[in-house]
Amino acid sequence: xxxxxNVSAVLDNLSGRNDLPLVVLQPADVLCSDTTxxxxxxxxxxYIDEDHLSSKGxxxxxxxxxxxxTR
Length: 71
Known about the structure:
Layout: H1 2-15, H2 28-31, E1 40-41, E2 44-45, H3 55-60, H4 62-69
Antiparallel strand pairs: 1-2
């Protein structure tokens, strides 16, 4: 999606700055393969709408967030 590409470009630019303590997380690293992104896990939706994760979706990202917090 073009909107997401624009946001990703800005965040990538900011994360390269040494004066900002910024870690950029990419949920697609967990939720997507090279060709598709999961929208559910079993019978549980990972999103509550087209932009926001459900509780189950947030839980799926827990390892990614933990890794970022331990850097």
